[in-house]
Amino acid sequence: MIEIVRAEQGDIPRILSIIADAKAYMAEQGFSQWTEDYPDEQMFRLDIELERGFVIKLEQNIVGVAALSYKQEEGYSTIDGQWLSHQPYAVVHRMAISKEARGTDAALRLLQSMELRCRVRGINSIRTDTHSLNKPMQGLLKKAGYSYCGVVTYPMEQIPTGDPTRLAYEKILTDGCACKGE
């Protein structure tokens, strides 16, 4: 059984384990979107406190994590390219899947859950960004129907690595879900 729920403080050790695995996987792939210090425990505790942290569970075991924010992303205000829309949007950040769940549909299911949560709130656009060398995430976004929109550049103080540019993606949520509540 797959379940996607809000993360809780007691989930932090497993979340940090998944993030450590993701950082190692990125290093194996030849890039460092994240660093030793980012994302850190404090960031995930804040995600939980602000009710933007989510986990995906497979048979009661946490196999993935993501943050969903409804706050407009400062780094998205300027893009070398063009966003699909100018409407309010949500942002997916800090998404990672455990090494045990790689190759399954867990990442896709987690993204789809974030999209549903947006629809429920009447948000019809969802955005995210990733490192130019993060081919697994780029493939996932393409599979999930996200469109590449261009390159965003974060202020250097907001980026944990030396490269402040990220590939930007957006998906317009147009299936007409008439969902209420969350």
Plain-language structure description:
- The protein has one domain: Aminopeptidase, CATH 3.40.630.30.
- With 182 residues, the chain is an alpha+beta fold.
- The model is unreliable at 176-182 (pLDDT under 50).
- A hairpin with a 2-residue loop joins strand 2 and strand 3.
- The protein is globular.
- The chain has helices at residues 12-29, 41-49, 106-120, 135-143; strands at residues 2-6, 53-58, 61-69, 79-81, 90-97, 125-130, 147-153, 165-172.
- The longest helix has 18 residues, at 12-29.
Features:
8-stranded mixed sheet, 182 residues, Aminopeptidase, disordered C terminus
Task: Give the topology, please.
Elements: E1 2-6, H1 12-29, H2 41-49, E2 53-58, E3 61-69, E4 79-81, E5 90-97, H3 106-120, E6 125-130, H4 135-143, E7 147-153, E8 165-172
Parallel strand pairs: 5-6
Antiparallel strand pairs: 1-2, 2-3, 3-5, 4-7, 6-8, 7-8
Briefly say what this structure is.
This protein has 182 residues and is of the alpha+beta class. It has helices at 12-29, 41-49, 106-120, 135-143, and strands spanning 2-6, 53-58, 61-69, 79-81, 90-97, 125-130, 147-153, 165-172. Strand 2 (53-58) and strand 3 (61-69) form a beta hairpin.
